[in-house]
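During the no-cost extension, the postdoctoral fellow (Dr. R.K.) reprocessed legacy sequence entries with the updated structure-token encoder. One reprocessed record is reproduced below for audit purposes.
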Amino acid sequence: MKKKLLVLLFAMVFTGTSSILHAEDAIDAGKEKAAACISCHGEHGNSLVTTFPKLAGQHSSYFIKQLEAFKNGTRKNPMMSSIAAGLSHEDMANLGAYYATQKISANELPILDDDDEKPVATTTKEKNPLQEIIAQGSDLYRNGDLTREVSACIACHGPFGEGNKPAAFPSLKSQHADYLIKTLTDFKTDERSNNPDNMMHMIAKKMTIEEIKAVSYRISMMK
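Re-encoded structure tokens follow.
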């Protein structure tokens, strides 16, 4: 009996060690492959151009799903479609494993456009337009707007923008506000999705441009 238990224990240890080594190999292979991504997505997946998404800390499940969409044409972007066409599923998995282990960088406070600056009636204390917009975004993120059937972001993306790995819902925290604004606008205008049943497509359709900016600014400040 003891001998059988020892054999079983050894097998479990060996399997666990093998899995760890395989994961490390995937990350190393992904890091090597990611060298071609640095020019747009930055060192370790933290892009310096705010219209290019940060990839650091993204769930591998969502990452792979998006690369497959670029490859099969259901998500359209000439540059990314061309890159994804040359990637095997193993390449995608390795890249996803690598970027999932990288730490996403924090953002500076967004700078409002002139269009975002609204005159605010002052009482005893002057209000900060940026903080008001972020507060509006925070309320929308947590509560949505039931009167217009705008779902709360927290339901799928979590209280801190961490997403949901098993469901392949992306992590959003500390993403560039400009990229988030573009993404939600693309969903709203059908640029991003040609599937009318897509959840984000239906939500963004009902959001105003002001709400898109507000929730994007709020998410960009999540850590």
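The mean pLDDT is 88. The radius of gyration is 21 Å. The remaining legacy entries will be reprocessed before the final report is submitted.
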